[in-house]
Write the structure tokens for this entry.
Amino acid sequence: MIEILPMQDRKAEEVLLAQIEKAGPEARILAMCERGQTLGWVALELSKEVLYILHMAAEGYDVSRKPQGEEVFVLDSLMRSAASYGETFGATKIATCFPDFFGFFAARGFDFDESHAFTPMSTIVKYEFH
């Protein structure tokens, strides 16, 4: 079973966050795991109504090439989980803090400039009322 949850090992989380220049004191990591193996993770931080995606990583993937196959699944799942986390805590917008993955985010409805991608939360989190 695949799970995406806030990282439980706070020491390991601190080590990862220390490597991210823009990570503030409220930054957290959501890890995607299957049978105890980490498939990927997303570092995020909330600031007022904005969920900032600080970094995304999928096992075996580096940003020098376009993500493929399972990498796309992992990154997409992490981005959507981050959005859901942000929406739960009142975020109305999503923005990245890095100049990578523009094609990935553009394909999901984000706008972007030379330094980051951004979109209203409603682009990712959809509501259906019956």
About this structure: Residues 23 and 60 are 23 Å apart (CA to CA). The mean pLDDT is 91. The chain has three helices and seven strands. The first strand starts at residue 2 and ends at 6.
